[in-house]
């Protein structure tokens, strides 16, 4: 199987190369490593640059963004980092994000989150980069803002946790749906129904590591190699051919990040 972890965080890892090596040993060939603030994005770019040298046979890329928890940070610094990265590491950056809205924790005022989200949407469109969207307890505003701003062609709903209604709204807008380890949890009934109904050509898989470890590793630090468990669960739920599903999902990931 060809497998791509479309969303992982390595900025707090002491030895990220060991995690990538372990994942590669288990068949994972692609990684998008994601920042959530200026400092974590800067560190992510550095890590990815080194990993590309260490593992030239793998597809390893970065994403730069302001998570809604960090939305009060300077957007100008993020934009400067994005433009510098595109200039000096042209094959490294594939997306803006993760960005979006989080009204569950609400670490930043909603108005601040909305402004940062709007500006990142525009930056992704301007630079023809994918947009990685985080949304929690904020579906209505997320759809409203993406509609008003005009969503980028390649918009990813990261760590999708919605049900059939939210899935329908995403598919109407041609968004790509990214499933994480949450889909393996026994109590994620509505999410599993959404995974069954989501067309295979519209979905990708991720770990969001070190968070959200899938079964049977729930409660432990997550790792990019565990994206295999997410893929297995999708195959089980959809009762489809594993190799065909893996190939389609790998190609979906390449396409949404403008790699093919």
Key phrases:
8 strands, 9 helices, eight-stranded parallel sheet, 260 residues, globular, alpha/beta, single chain, TIM Barrel
Please tell me about this protein's structure.
- This protein has a single domain, classed as Alpha-Beta Barrel (TIM Barrel).
- α2 (38-54) packs parallel to α3 (75-88).
- It contains nine helices and eight strands.
- It has an eight-stranded parallel beta sheet with strand order 1-2-3-4-5-6-7-8.
- It has helices spanning 16-25, 38-54, 75-88, 110-127, 139-149, 164-172, 189-197, 227-238, 242-256, and strands at residues 3-8, 28-34, 59-64, 93-102, 130-136, 155-157, 176-179, 203-205.
- α7 (189-197) links the parallel β7 and β8.
Query: Which class do the helix and strand fractions yield?
Result: alpha/beta
Q: Write down the oligomeric state.
A: single chain
Order of helices and strands: EHEHEHEHEHEHEHEHH
Main beta-sheet annotation: 8 strands, parallel
Instruction: Determine the CATH superfamily.
Output: Metal-dependent hydrolases
Would you spell out the secondary-structure blueprint of this structure?
Layout: E1 3-8, H1 16-25, E2 28-34, H2 38-54, E3 59-64, H3 75-88, E4 93-102, H4 110-127, E5 130-136, H5 139-149, E6 155-157, H6 164-172, E7 176-179, H7 189-197, E8 203-205, H8 227-238, H9 242-256
Parallel strand pairs: 1-2, 2-3, 3-4, 4-5, 5-6, 6-7, 7-8
Helix pairs in contact: 2-3
